[in-house]
Design a protein that fits this description.
Blueprint: E1 46-47, E2 56-59, H1 73-82, E3 84-85, E4 87-89, E5 95-97, E6 100-104, E7 110-115, H2 129-140, E8 152-157, E9 162-167, E10 181-182, E11 198-200, E12 206-209, E13 223-228, H3 232-240, E14 246-249, E15 264-278, H4 288-294, H5 300-307, E16 312-314, H6 328-332, H7 338-347, E17 360-363, E18 366-369, E19 372-377, H8 381-396, E20 401-406, H9 408-416, E21 422-428, H10 436-439, H11 453-464, H12 468-485, E22 488-500, E23 505-506, E24 523-524, E25 531-532
Parallel strand pairs: 2-13, 19-20, 19-21
Antiparallel strand pairs: 1-25, 3-10, 4-5, 6-7, 7-9, 8-9, 11-12, 12-13, 14-22, 15-21, 15-22, 16-22, 17-18, 23-24
């Protein structure tokens, strides 16, 4: 018995929507798929254990394993064991030194990072600032890492130990964005050399422990096997029969898989925010007082608990509630309250003027019926249900709403061309909760028609804060301005899952960016026979 050891990255709004000693395996052990027992993952009387005495992960053979180029979440998961991040980010979204030992900046624009030159790559060469600089520059052109680095002006190695990064705008929380895989700058066209705890075998069938890894003695297992993924149903089957032993699941996403209930499930927080987007150029939602009332017409708890089945945490502010920056007192001011929403609409002149049971609003030519065009992507049934719930609550206080379900392509078209009043959206915020791209006038994800320079000023003040006290205060000002303006109405932040078979893995501290964070604290127990439980 040895010491132990997908998230499918939600890209729902990436295109246009505002829009992470002795080993426990025996030489010669193989995966015998033909003889693998058939197990129903939904059968409540089956406890699935590590049946083959191996620890294995799935990967996509038709996708690259290059950590800065892969678009496969399964391969990115495996890459976390072979390549290391320049900086780690923990579950509280705080930066943790790793290959970069420390950092400093006098102005929040020019940053200097010290590299750990005691680290060696798998070929025995020493890590240098040139490798880190090269990796960050490569990441700037990556679809996965590029968006978070779009405010980077330049990256260069000043010497073997120091990397200088210059930003186009002040950001004292910038180190949180440097959980970037570091590769050796050797000009290879194939898989680059890494410095992580494990090394790829030549045929990509297994990972073996890198004996010169600085924490090699603390690694939970010597060999991790790689099993080629099939389609979604095959992945479920392979996990159920222990051909793979760990999976990452997004229970709120399109790619969620039904792994059944016989698992150990650990949730980890994400910066994936679901929200309502308002069109500030539409006839009704152009009015701030009308939008403001919408804050109180969203039953976030019902959506999180009953539609998303607990796989989300409610939020009235665009900050993850687990983060210390989230002000619960401020957030409570915007909680769900239909009576308050009705009163606010009435105070703003939205009333039932013709006494037909539905509200009207005033225009220069007379009163107008309300029929809000609320679009939602039809591909995600949970979001459709959430939009329908919000619409039903609005209808109950007299606000007419039509939920328009459209496919992804039409959804993107409508958002980018302003053909909506409201939309149900999702956005993956960066670890520093920088909202510049989302809500400022020239933001690349500003599809709301925002033309208010104050948003930039509030975001800039937040990112320019140098002390915790100042950062909390400026964050409160920013969040209150956003909530009062209600161009976006936050609903919740999603949680994702790490699933393992029972009693096989302990010590998991998964983060949004690295499931294997603090792998040295894991214990992996593969010497467990399959057990049957009676109902």
């Amino acid at each position: 018995m040895g010491k132990q050891t997908k998230r499918l990255l939600a890209l729902l709004l990436t295109a246009a929507l505002l829009l992470s000693a002795t080993g426990c395996k025996k030489t010669g052990d193989t995966d015998d798929e033909d003889n693998a027992p058939t197990i129903d993952p939904n059968a409540s009387d089956v406890a699935v254990k590590a049946q083959d005495n191996l620890f294995a992960l799935g990967y996509d053979a038709n996708q690259t394993m290059h950590p800065l180029r892969t678009t496969s979440s399964a391969n990115a998961l495996v890459d976390c064991l072979v390549y290391e991040f320049a900086v780690e980010v923990d579950q509280d979204f705080q930066p943790v030194p790793n290959l970069i030992l420390d950092w400093k900046s006098d102005n929040g624009v020019s940053w200097f990072f010290t590299v750990d030159t005691t680290v060696t790559f798998h070929d025995g060469t020493t890590l240098t600032a040139g490798d880190v600089s090269y990796s960050i520059n490569q990441a700037r052109n990556s679809g996965t890492y590029g968006p978070r680095l779009n405010k980077v002006w330049g990256v260069s190695a000043l010497n073997d130990e120091t990397v200088m990064i210059t930003l186009s705008d002040t950001n004292y929380m910038f180190p949180r964005l440097l959980n970037i895989p570091v590769v050796k700058n050797d000009g290879t066209d194939g898989l680059p050399t890494g410095s992580g705890p494990y090394i790829f075998s030549e045929d990509l069938t297994q990972l073996t422990l890198y004996q010169n890894y600085r924490h090699a003695a603390d690694m939970p297992i010597d060999v991790i096997y790689l099993h080629e993924n099939g389609d979604r149903e095959q992945i479920i089957s392979d996990y159920s029969t222990s051909l793979i032993d760990l999976v990452v699941n997004d229970p709120t996403g399109l790619s969620r898989l039904g792994y059944g209930s016989n698992n150990e499930v650990r949730y980890f927080p994400t910066t994936n925010m679901q929200f309502i987007g308002m069109n500030t150029l539409s006839e009704f939602t152009c009015y701030q007082s009308y939008r403001y009332a919408m804050n109180f017409a969203v039953d976030r708890a019902y959506i999180a608990d009953n539609i998303l089945n607990g796989s989300a945490v409610t939020a009235t502010l665009p900050i993850l509630p687990e983060n210390s920056l989230y002000n619960t007192d401020l957030a409570s001011r915007y909680n769900f309250d239909l009576d308050n929403a009705r009163r606010l609409f009435s105070d703003a002149g939205v009333r039932d003027y013709d006494e037909d049971g539905m509200l009207e609003y005033q225009l220069p030519g007379g009163n107008a019926k309300i029929d809000l065009d609320f679009i939602v992507c039809s591909d995600n049934t949970d979001k459709v249900k959430a939009a329908q719930k919000i619409a039903a609550d609005l209808e109950s206080i007299g606000i007419g709403v039509t939920v328009r379900q459209v496919n992804w392509m039409e959804y993107v078209y409508c958002i980018t061309n302003g053909e909506y009043d409201m939309f149900y959206g999702e956005v993956k915020l960066p670890a520093d909760f920088n909202l510049t791209d989302l809500i400022t006038t020239n933001g690349v994800k500003n599809f709301f028609g925002i033309n208010d320079p104050n948003y930039y000023e509030y975001v800039h003040a937040f990112l320019s804060a140098q002390t915790d006290e100042e950062r909390h205060q400026t964050c409160d000002y920013l969040c209150q301005y956003i909530a009062d303006g209600a161009v976006i109405v936050p609903i919740c932040f999603e949680k994702q899952q790490v699933l393992t078979h029972r009693d096989v893995v302990s010590g998991i501290e998964a983060t949004q960016y690295n499931v294997f964070y603090n792998l040295k604290n894991w214990t992996i127990n593969t010497d467990i026979a399959r057990e049957e439980e009676t109902p």
